[in-house]
Specification:
This protein is of the alpha/beta class. Helix content is 46%, strand content 14%. It has twelve helices and ten strands. β9, α8 (190-195) and β10 (200-203) form a beta-alpha-beta unit.
């Protein structure tokens, strides 16, 4: 359902408010580049620092700017199941094609709690859901067997895997149906995950280099693994730079250097340090 390279969009700010003109321009640039879809209000979009009103505003702007040209997978996750249902219902009503939901952070639910959390959202909203497994941020790893259970649900259609564990990701692919989309959540692992059967990526790097990320994906998909490997190593220094500090600090700095937006970021994240900026 959702294969290819999707961009985890940053949220541009100006004077600590959503910079709507900059966000619309970012959307247009991504679509012009040929990106498969857009993902607002994820961790790259600083969703943790957005008010509920701002969260809705960003999703509304991105859906409006996309104007049906590409699917929008709205970030609607929360460690509060009721809040996640509310965010997801709003995204559905706004016209999102699907929602991306990270595993609940801080609460540290059991595997059974994770199943019930995601199933409750799917049952309440009946919008296609992509689970987001990023234990480095949530302290909650979704086990392959748990993902396989969730994949049985009609409206749970994929997972963004950012565990960094290729063996775990391979287990997910092995246990889940072929039509369940496993997407790379770590940009440097796009090629390895494609090689073991993944369907694509929800990427940070494509904010600044969408064509290069698309070229890598298309090279592998067309059977040219040598070219895909060459592109991977060409991108490696950029991957290193964009993850030199906590995401999205470097990618927002890079976009500001490109003139695409103001270099504004909300506390507790701070400006990129000068050595990494250099």
């Amino acid at each position: 359902m959702f294969g290819g390279v999707f961009t985890a969009l940053v949220t541009p700010f100006r004077d600590d408010k959503i910079d709507e003109p900059a966000l619309r321009k970012l959307v247009d640039r991504q679509i012009t580049a040929g990106i498969a879809g857009l993902v607002p209000c994820g961790s790259t979009g600083e969703s943790a620092t957005l008010s509920a009103q701002e969260h809705h505003q960003v999703i509304d702007i991105v859906i409006s700017a996309a104007a049906g040209r590409v699917p929008v997978l709205a970030g609607t996750g929360s460690n509060n199941t009721r809040e996640a249902i509310g965010f997801t219902q709003h995204a559905k009503e706004a016209g999102a094609a699907a929602a991306l939901l990270l595993s609940p952070y801080y609460n540290k639910p059991t595997q059974e709690g994770l199943v019930e959390h995601f199933e409750a959202i799917a049952n309440a909203t009946q919008l296609p859901l992509i689970i987001y497994n990023i234990p480095g941020r949530t302290a909650s790893n979704i086990a392959p067997e748990t993902i396989a259970r969730l994949a049985e649900h009609e409206f749970i259609v994929g997972v963004k895997e950012a565990s960094g564990d290729l063996d775990q990701i391979a287990q997910v692919i092995a246990l889940c149906p072929d039509d369940f989309d496993v997407l790379a959540g770590d940009d440097p692992l796009l090629l390895p995950i494609l090689a073991i059967g993944g369907k694509g990526s929800i990427a940070v790097t494509s904010n600044v280099a969408p064509a290069a990320m698309l070229d890598l994906y298309r090279a592998f998909s067309s059977g040219n693994s040598a070219r895909a490997r060459e592109l991977h190593y060409q991108l490696l220094p950029l991957f290193n730079a964009l993850f030199s500090e906590t995401n999205p600090i470097p990618v927002k700095a890079a976009l500001a250097m490109m003139g695409a937006m103001q270099d504004d970021i909300r506390l507790p994240l701070t400006q990129l340090t000068q050595p990494n900026r250099d």
